[in-house]
TrEMBL record:
Keywords: Glycosyltransferase, Transferase
Listed EC numbers: 2.4.2.1
Protein name: Purine nucleoside phosphorylase
Subunit (UniProt): Homotrimer.
Origin species: Rhabdobacter roseus
Pathway(s) of this molecule: Purine metabolism; purine nucleoside salvage
Amino acid sequence: MSPQQIQEATHYLLQSTQDFRPRCGIILGTGLAGLAQEIDVHYSISYEDIPHFPVSTVEFHSGKLLFGVLAGQRVVCMQGRFHYYEGYSMPQITFPVRVMKQLGVGTLFVSNAAGGMNPNYRVSDLMVIRDHISFLLPQSPLTGTHYPEFGDRFPDMCDPYDLDLVQKALDIAQQHQIRAHAGVYVGVPGPQLETRAEYRLLRLLGADAVGMSTVPEIIVAHQMGIRCFGLSVVTDMGLPDTLEKADIQKIIAAAMAAEPGMTTIIKNLIASLDQHG
Ligand code: HPA
């Protein structure tokens, strides 16, 4: 997706929102839409109306970009995100992040549902992402033509997740008695879940949780100099020796059970941006 397409989408959004300039971007994961209800929404724009935005699949026909205020900050929130397993290309999946940058977003908050592989984790625990593994995905979102205005051709990935935000999130969790860990997220293409052998391998690689999203968006955001924060909800346990048949209803219920804790952490983090930039 070219810089011109990004400019056209940005221009449309600025025109449709009377130049609303969000400071934070939010991308909500499966079963975690509740945070959107906390936003004092000023503008709600359907994805299909935004030039060059990926068109929605059957999975969500109500993709919307919400502009409003959360915890005293101007935010833009993606209600409905794009996954590789739906057939989108990596540049399509990450297009909204590039548009967010043009709108003025400096910090990105991403949530997702993930399979827990660290044996200390339990279903409905939260995992603050402190690092990720990207190379099991079929392609990097940075593959292909390089546009220097996006950032480096070979961007550094030393600390893609802001370590101050990681620590603050763990502190907030402790204050509110929310079970939260800091861990490594591995991104996989999906849509099938992992075999026992795959969970065993992913654990050997050093991952604590596995999921089908987030990594492409974070790579692109980090390339553009956006500060990133990622939060996973453990919706099922991927322990090879005691693996049970996956039940999507249970996975969604586990995400919903963790939603109040996730909302508390993200709201408090956003509120804290005032003091610490
Ligand atoms: N694997 C991959 N993605 C997931 C899982 C899982 O076990 N649970 C929720 N998303």
